[in-house]
Known about the structure:
Elements: H1 4-27, H2 31-57, H3 68-81, H4 86-111, H5 119-143
Helix pairs in contact: 1-2, 1-4, 2-5, 4-5
Amino acid sequence: MTNINTFKTLTQYTFDSVEGYRNAMEKADSPTLRSALERRLSSRQQTFSKMNTALTNLGEEPISSASTVGSGHQVWLKVVSAFENNDEAAAEHVETGEDYLVDQFRDALKDNEFDAALRPIVEDAYNEIKAGERFTDMLEKQYS
């Protein structure tokens, strides 16, 4: 059974995380941090692209803009980060986002029966997101 609504939601969250990495890159002062975030952004964009292609192949509309929740979260982070060190804020914000995202993917894989075409895509995305979570855990320790 295809759980397309769950897959669409995960794809939307992945798009939102791409935007989160972009915003963190803009916020960061350190060239080293910006470069590291850019590498993760590239990886996340590839993951999003694979998921969005799968949506299109299923006859669904591709995700092309941030969710209302994602957009609101980014605005809130910009307000809060105005009072923080730029590198620390950038590292903290991507770390918080990655924690949330990995939980969403873990729960979806545990609770949903994806069909044979979607499950490997979700599992690959989850693995990339777990790598992002480990990366941001290290960043948070380094820049806190």
